[in-house]
Design goal:
seven-stranded mixed sheet, binds pyridoxal-5'-phosphate
């Protein structure tokens, strides 16, 4: 068994399958600009995500910027979000000329806490951007209800939630729009890539203009926009991975169960629980390290795992609100997010991870306890 275990490894379809998928690009010579493969990926993912439409683009980060720009919010408007996320969420808001307002998260699933939401709404608020962290679906009913009362858009950062369902509802059906990342490290990927799941047809043209220099007809440019299109080689990888997505999730699920079994009796170590009503994609394996019970803290465990050649990731630490370029936006306290980010550690999880490797990792964690 290979005991040098990275925290993440990209899923790959069989080599021949990808080669077969890209073969016709040598005939069509249509390599980008919304080719057939991107269009097919959109149609198939919209079905899987439960949205009326899905739009591709170059990466998940741009997908967030595109949807924010497509809505045309006034400069300086406020977007309520959580700081317990990948920096991309906060960066996109700021880069679009909007102001992030940081809301605390819930202890049990790390998603935006609707109970803290309403106090943060001002007459400048234009949207709420919660994150389905680790594929944990936000409390959409409560968020929606508050958003409707104040006439706000709800845009989910669903980068972690491809293929997840809650209560029979698919991840792309929540919110006015939901943004997915198809980055190589995600549970489903197209090397790099982004998807916007949305429900109003009008948005489609706007999203396209926002990723294609604002060109609305051969002679017209209607807005200032960059190039952020998905190319056909990316889309081809997406189509191949889509055929195997279910298999990938099944292998991850087995790893998840092995982790649960291997860590259940380790004091102070808590594995993220998947609620009964949720069909997970098992994208990540976050654990909480509670020092008072474990006898060591998250950083000790990170170091110990690294010594044993097991990769792990302090994901998400630091909070985005504490980076120097964003901390001027921090106007409220987020005590739960502060604590969770000190305790959280993401362990290796990918479709090629073996049960032996998971057991080895659990043994290493038990050994740390005995030190
Ligand atoms: C990965 C990720 C993004 C950015 O996606 P890219 O495809 O890497 O640009 C945004 N938000 C979250 C929560 C992510 O995990």
């Amino acid at each position: 068994m290979n005991v040098n275990i990275p925290v993440i490894k990209s899923s790959m379809p069989p080599y021949e399958e990808y080669i077969e998928e890209i073969k016709d690009l040598w005939d069509t010579r249509w390599l980008t600009n919304h080719g057939q493969k991107a269009a097919k990926l959109e149609a198939e993912t919209a079905k899987l995500l439960g949205s009326e439409y899905a739009g591709t683009c170059v990466n998940g980060h741009q997908a967030i910027e595109l949807i924010l720009r497509a809505y045309g919010f006034a400069e300086g408007s406020e977007v309520i979000t959580s700081p317990f996320t990948f920096v991309s969420t906060t960066a996109a808001i700021v880069r679009c000329g909007l102001k992030p307002v940081f809301c605390d998260i819930r202890e049990e699933d790390y998603t935006l806490d609707p109970n803290c939401l309403e106090a943060l709404i001002t007459d400048k608020t234009c949207a709420i951007m919660p994150i389905h962290v680790y594929g944990n679906i936000c409390d959409d009913d409560s968020i929606r209800e508050i958003a409707d009362r104040h006439d706000l858009k709800v845009i989910y950062d669903a980068a972690h939630a491809f293929g997840v369902e809650k209560n029979g509802k698919k991840a792309g059906s929540f919110g006015d729009a939901a943004v997915f990342s198809l980055h190589a490290t995600k549970a489903f990927h197209s090397i790099e890539g982004g998807l916007i799941a949305y429900h109003e047809q009008d948005l489609g043209m706007k999203l396209w203009e926002q990723q294609n220099f604002g060109i609305s007809s051969p002679d017209t440019v209607s807005c200032v926009a960059p190039n952020a299109k998905m190319n056909e080689f990316q889309a081809a990888m997406g189509l191949c991975n889509l055929r195997h997505f279910h298999e990938y999730v099944q292998s991850r699920k087995q790893c998840y169960e092995a982790y649960r079994a291997g860590l259940k009796d380790v004091p102070g170590i808590y594995v993220n629980e998947i609620p009964q009503d949720t069909v997970s994609n098992y994208a990540y394996l976050p654990i909480r390290v509670v020092e008072e019970e474990a006898g060591f803290n998250r950083n000790d465990l990170f170091d110990f795992l690294a010594e044993q050649q097991v990769g792990s990731r302090k994901y998400f630490w630091p909070l985005t609100s504490s980076f120097p370029c964003y901390n001027s936006y921090k106007t409220t306290e987020t005590p739960i997010a502060d604590r969770v980010s000190e305790q959280i550690l993401v362990l290796p999880m990918y479709s090629d991870l073996t049960i032996d490797q998971v057991e080895y990792i659990c043994n290493v964690i038990q050994k740390r306890r005995a030190v």
